[in-house]
Amino acid sequence: MRIEFLGSGGATTTPRPGCHCRICDEARERGVPYARSGPSIFVHGPDLLIDTPEEINLQLNRSGIDRIAGCIYSHWHPDHTMGRRVWETRNVDLRGWPPEPRRTNIYLPEQVASDFRERLGLQEHFDFMTKQGTVQVIELRDGVALELDGVEIMPFRLAEDYVYAFLLVEDGIRVLVAPDELHGWSPDQAPVSLDDLDLAILPMGVTEFDVFTGERLIDPEHRVLNLEMTFNETLDVVRSLGARQTILAHIEEMEQLSFDDLRELERTLHRDGMNVTFAWDTMTVDVPG
Ligand SMILES: [Zn+2]
Ligand SMILES: [Zn+2]
After folding, report:
1. Ligand 1 center to residue 75 CA distance, Å?
2. Residue 289 above 90 pLDDT?
3. Ligand 1 centroid to 182 CA: how many Å?
4. Per-residue pLDDT, 108
5. SS3 (DSSP) at 141
6. What separation in Å is there between the alpha carbon of 256 and the centre of ligand 2?
7. What is the pTM of this model?
């Protein structure tokens, strides 16, 4: 199984327009891997796309991805859905008569489908593209796996139960993809066994403390700590999952950690016996069976 990080950023991508912090200026000057676009992952083989941030159009072109068997959405949040017009851009036929658009299957886990009806005009836009013939929306039921090209994809809810993670299984290869929102979650809550993972992909979480000095960065009263899992809590999840390899993504500009800082942090984690890598845009990983 080959997994590609089309975008490794979070809700605040790097560089942020108008920001001249050290991280943003460096990203402007040096590009990838210092620059980070919105959260999106592509699974080569089943050719499954997970989430469409604003930059998805550019991300697909940059990575040279042609075939997309389907796209599954993890949750309704704008940083994961606002590139949804890509289906029109990619598939519409505005010249042929009768029009012969391409059509992409859009898989919505049960709660995501329900939230699409309430949030951000998502349902309305997907209805528009359905009429246009550029998408086909397929609603999934909790507890039922999707199968694409020999890969079983099981969506399941996290503790923030409007958000889904995915267990991907192919010929004994087992990969967990959790794009975002781990707050309050621990692996023993999963309705599927997460033992024996070859790879776990998780959001890195919020750095409540400076990762090198331990200095407190966020006031303990700050509401973000009630909404987001912290980086230290994420490391507890990494230890408890015990995957052979872990990749942390959804890296916010607000963390103020450059690509080089994260490399150094990786070395610290490796010394503590943790096989953790921080994702970057276009990073591709082959998961050995
Ligand atoms: Zn997000
Ligand atoms: Zn900045």
Report:
1. 9
2. no
3. 11
4. 98
5. coil
6. 7
7. 0.97
Asked if residue 109 has a cis previous peptide bond (ω within 30° of 0), the answer is: no
Gap between the Cα atoms of 198 and 169, Å rounded: 10
Indicate the number of domains in the chain.
1
CATH number for the domain harbouring residue 54: 3.60.15.10
CB 81 within 8 A of CB 129: no
CA of 102 to the centre of ligand 1 (A): 28
Give the contacts of 68 (CB within 8 A, at least 6 positions apart): 47, 48, 49, 60, 90, 104
Q: How far is the CA of 12 from the centre of ligand 2 (A)?
A: 9
Decide the pairing of beta strands 48-50 and 245-249: unpaired
Identify the domain containing residue 20 by its residue range: 2-286
Rounded Cα distance, 224 and 206, in Å: 8
- 225 CA to middle of ligand 2, Å? 21
Residue 175 forms beta bridges with which residues?
Answer: 168, 199
Query: Quick check: 274 and 239 in contact, CB under 8 A?
Result: yes
Instruction: Label residue 288 by pLDDT band (50, 70, 90).
Output: confident
26 Ramachandran zone, left/alpha/beta (phi>0; psi -120 to 50):
alpha
CB 121 within 8 A of CB 19: no
Distances (CA, A) of 23 to 216, 254, 282: 20, 9, 19
Expressed in angstroms and rounded, the spacing between residue 130 Cα and the centre of ligand 1 is 25
What's the pLDDT score for residue 170?
Answer: 96
* Strand-strand pairing, 164-170 and 151-157: antiparallel
- Residues forming a β-bridge with 156: 165
Location of structure tokens 């004994």 = 172
Nearest Cα residue to 146 out of 127, 169, 162, 130 = 169
Give CA–CA dist 53/124, Å, rounded.
18
